[in-house]
Amino acid sequence: MSKNLKLSKKSIALISTVGLFLLVGFIGIPELTRNLLFYPDAPTANFPIPNNETEARLQDLEYFENYVRGYDRSFHFRARGNALSQINELRKDVDKLSQAGFELAISEVVALGENGHSNVWNHSRAKRYPAMPYQGYWFDDGYHIVATTSEYVSLLGARVTHIGDTDIEVIKDAFRRYYGGEDSGFIAYAFPFLIQNTAFLFELGFINNKLNLDVTIINNEGSVEKSHIKAIPPQKDRHIQSPWRWLVPEWDHDHNKQFIGFSNDRNYDPLYLKTNDEFQLSRLSDLKILYIQYRQNNDGHQMSISEFNKKIRQEISSFKPEVLIFDQRFNGGGDYTKTADLMFEIPELMPEGSRVYAIAGHETFSAGISSLGFLKDALHNELIIVGRRIGDSPLSWGETNDFILPNSGIEMTAARGLHDQLYGCEDWIQCYWTDFKYPAAVGSLEPDIPVPFTFADYKAGVDASLSSIISIESSN
């Protein structure tokens, strides 16, 4: 009997020791597991030095399979099968492809994942090839030139209708297969870089010379004219910025002396273009409206995002607005946790009977979309969204990691964590764990009041989205 008791005590001691180790381990396990699941290092590329270009590309394709087979988690099984089949086809003709052709082929495979966060990087590849001597932006009334080199300043504001002999709509449709997200995200984030790349235009047969080509425009007087232009040679140190930034007067343009923006030296009246800062807070006192603008979900150059959130809380408390407007149209993302708490607090902060609007656009992306979802969920779907469709689906893969092909240097993002603000995320393996702290299921983030974003309004200094809100509130 005592022997059994002694063994029992040993067992208890052993169990206690194991339990202690498990407890200590459990404290560190969630963070370790989270990093392994969502932020693992890319596979190591252990290849010998290639003997020629063909061998280098075959190595790249072998390494690229890691991306498709699971490092990027957005591929569903049929898309993964199609992607692997395309990689196998590429192997057969890899020696026949130009550099641009190989990069387009890789982009097409990546796009099969149909995920906005999973694409070949635009900024880095834009420096590898000749480029148009202008920057364009796709408005709802066409593709307009918003910045040029000094040689082509007369083209500022013109609408491009043809490159070579091909209608720009046809070119847009041809480039669509090289981007994996929504149409709105393609227009905002991919198309302006793809159509600026003369090597890609040449590869697809739209022009017959990468350095000298013709474009047809409708100039500012409404006349059609054909312009012969010279492309900018590849420049590894060329400053690249998102197309929408050229819309803001003097936004970071001092870093890019090569281009002159249409917005330069213009004294714009609309609030959304009023400041070069990442954040803005303004009172429209006559209508008791508080206007809040986020251009990113990270700290700004002038102010941290936590400071800005604090200012918002203070301003709501002192001003007691009847209407709150969150302008997220150029919020391309960052860290959604930096605004999530504020979004869920808004119903408690705002006076009873107040109304909340959000302005969205094609550049609203990633954490910018999450912020909209949190706000709409907190307001029990009473948020009124105005403007254009957001740049991605509220159900998409995020939490990205870098993935670089070892020889060509083609860079892409691999998405690892699922976010589902349409129906709510509940899968502990696929869903990003922080979403469980900030659950949201809103059904839709489509605009309740669709408002186009046109060059005509931009040129005239009109904010049609804000004007729509003011019109509604003025009539109440």
Which helices and strands, and how do they pair?
Elements (H helix, E strand, L loop, with lengths): L1 H37 L14 H19 L5 H17 L5 H13 L10 H4 L8 E6 L2 E7 L10 E5 L2 E2 H8 L7 H12 L3 H6 L8 E7 L5 E7 L29 E2 L17 E6 L4 E6 L10 H15 L3 E5 L9 H13 L5 E6 L6 H12 L5 E4 L7 E10 L6 E10 L28 E2 L4 H6 L3 H12 L1
Overview of the structural elements:
With 476 residues, this protein is α/β, with parallel strands linked by helices. The protein has three domains: 53-121; 123-237, PDZ domain (Pdz3 Domain); 271-394 and 442-475, 2-enoyl-CoA Hydratase, Chain A, domain 1, CATH 3.90.226. It contains 13 helices and 15 strands. It has helices spanning 2-38, 53-71, 77-93, 99-111, 122-125, 168-175, 183-194, 198-203, 305-319, 337-349, 367-378, 455-460, 464-475; strands at 134-139, 142-148, 159-163, 166-167, 212-218, 224-230, 260-261, 279-284, 289-294, 323-327, 355-360, 384-387, 395-404, 411-420, 449-450. It has a six-stranded mixed sheet with strand order 8-9-10-11-12-15, sandwiched between helices. It has a four-stranded antiparallel sheet with strand order 4-3-5-6. Strands 1-2-7 form a three-stranded antiparallel sheet. β1 and β2 form a beta hairpin. It is globular. The model is unreliable at 1-10 and 15-27 (pLDDT under 50).
